[in-house]
Amino acid sequence: MLSRNYREKGIESVLFIISTLTVAILFLICLFLFRDGLLLFKETSLLNFLTGKFWYPTSVNEQFGLVPLFLGSLLVTFGAILFSVPLGIASAIYISEIAHPKVADFLKPFIEILAGIPSVVYGFFGLVVLVPLMQETLNLPTGQTALTGSIMLGIMALPTIVTISEDAISSVPSTLKQGSLALGATRWQTIYKVIIPAAISGISAAVMLGVGRAIGETMVVLMVTGNAAIIPSFPGGFLDPVRTMTATIALEMGEVPQGSDHFHSLFAVGSVLFIITLLVNLVADSIKKKYQFKLG
Length: 296
Prior knowledge:
GO terms for molecular function: phosphate transmembrane transporter activity. By secondary structure, the chain is mainly α.
């Protein structure tokens, strides 16, 4: 009995150390990002950085405006969400509730394989296949646009959304479904009035993870969006070349002089990305707790 208590305390200690190490690593990442990013504001004001409309880091008069990069990231991510969320949730409902078990067992492995494909392969496919197709179909000067990036990011986010949403829907107790059907509800009424509300916590988590994948993706947007650091036009911004924050860091960090304002500006962009990701996770956690409380 005594040895068992020692083992349990040992396991608790190991888990505590691992949890503490995770928090410490996150803190060090924050320190690493914000320390170098804040040095930019010795020469440039925070307001100019956040509201600046031009990103000219190598010109004689350096300008480090975040607006074109932020809007490019926002536009591409928003397009990816519009594409992937309805399709992903609909696919999850079909696999979990409508498809024949043999069909579902056939589809699920292929969807999971899509999640394991390297992003550079997606980017290569988009560059070789989708970019020329968009250029010819829409009669554009170039097929490297925000719309192309949105479609590719949507395809990349689909496996995450489908897999997690399908798990959430499948975990809904069968008694809820049977009770709904016994009360006279049709199959579709049961799906959207009982099953979806009961699984909304997992579905919202799937959507947020898909959004996080889209926001943080680098290689695909680097290859198919055109990398033009300009503010997208309205209302046809999806057909303009754009540059995202992640692509900017990947393109410029390898050639920037260490310790320069340009160097610190890239860390500032990374800090903004970190804050956005943190906010997305907080929103996802808030939605999850809200619906768990309602269903509880």
